[in-house]
Amino acid sequence: MEKNRRSWAEPYKIKMVEPVHISTHKERQKAIKGAGYNTFLLRSSEVYIDLLTDSGTSAMSDRQWAGLMLGDEAYAGSNNFYRLEDSVRKNYGYKYLVPTHQGRAAEHIISQLLIKEGDYIPGNMYFTTTKLHQELAGGTFVDVIIDEAHDPANEHPFKANVDLNKLEDLIHDKGAENIPYVAISTTVNMAGGQPISLSNLKQVRELTQKHGIKIIHDMTRVAENAYFIKEREPGYENHSIGDIVMEICSLTDGATMSAKKDALVNIGGFLAVNDEELFDRARNMVVIYEGLHTYGGMAGRDMEALAVGIQESVQYDHIRARVGQVQYLGKKLINMNVPIVKPVGSHGIFLDAKKILPHLTQDQLPAQSLAAAIYLDSGVRAMERGVVSAGRNPETGENNYPKLELVRLTIPRRVYTQAHMDVVAESVEAVVANAADISGLKFVYEPEYLRFFQSRFEPLG
Ligand code: P70
User: Fold this and answer.
1) Which residues are catalytic?
2) For labeling, which of 9, 114, 285, 356 is most exposed (least CB within 10 Å)?
């Protein structure tokens, strides 16, 4: 194909810049101590290259900024709501839209509506907020992802696939009546930004339909998943990203969306469903927690920026450059022999902290320690995705010990350059070379919910 003869490059040029502060080692030492060795507690002014998350950190296009000026801030029936509804229908195919302020609000609503006490919710690996909302609604999450997803070195092209035997066994053991839906995520964040294949999703659809079980789709990074399908799944090489996205959505009954990722906005999300009765209940519930059903926690201007962002997110040149930048950093680190999750995912690089710090036990919080060490080295901010993120078992109070103990270098969309990626790789290489000096951390404060956000730590002697 003509398009692929050349390397990817950003399909945009830069119109405005935001200066960043390059700190000194001494400043960073003070900052990380003050933050209790938790990168979530750093101020952004203390950060040089911010790879904490790709959530809400994207750069909007000129068309999106122009859209802000079209904000219709009517309490009810805003023009922007109808444009957003139209954009969701045209690009994703879901019939009914309930806007929310971000993804977890949509998770809250769908969990409360569909889950009853004692239910089981199978899914292709957990996500922190999703699982918590399932538990708060009385359910138990069950991981039915293929085993390969738990092995950072395994190069399966679709590590987010569901293990159909695991799913079938669960339906057999617990009964279809106790499984309100299967939670399918595109891509899977905690596995390293890995995709699910369309052929696997079709099989999941067939199996669940036989038992009358719904599929609820976490479509936070669906365009990135579609890009991998186009690249890797036989038969899809000539399909557009838009068509693949539509096909994915058509195999599910509804979706929760954190629009802060794929859809290129700084705030926003939604719940979308096809069933009219479920929609009626959801839009009744949204008025309790979010706002009226035609804004649900978003300003009119934000809905406009989202309507435009959705269209931009499924453009091939955009998604190729977005994923291309992540692959660039991944390849660089692989060439430096840094152990990372393979294949390289779509939204970030996941460093294998267990491999990098073999002298630490999981109780000594290797990923948390590695993220703090990288910050100290260069001011690059990353995020822990290991034992701290996995929290405690709500029944026993014991730590959950996930197989994956990772540090995520998450790449915001359209924000950093290839030169920034080079600095990140140099810093990680230097920290890995001196990894034996990293001594581990212990908790000194731990909140009840989603502890990774607010916990504080101290170095272990
Ligand atoms: C991240 C963010 C959010 C997210 C997600 C998937 C697959 C739902 C949501 C929730 C922010 C985050 C959230 C919890 C822990 C750490 C970071 N992911 N599903 O950085 O959406 O944030 O809009 O409520 O990735 O990965 P929202």
Assistant:
1) 75, 127-128, 218, 261, 385, 452
2) 9
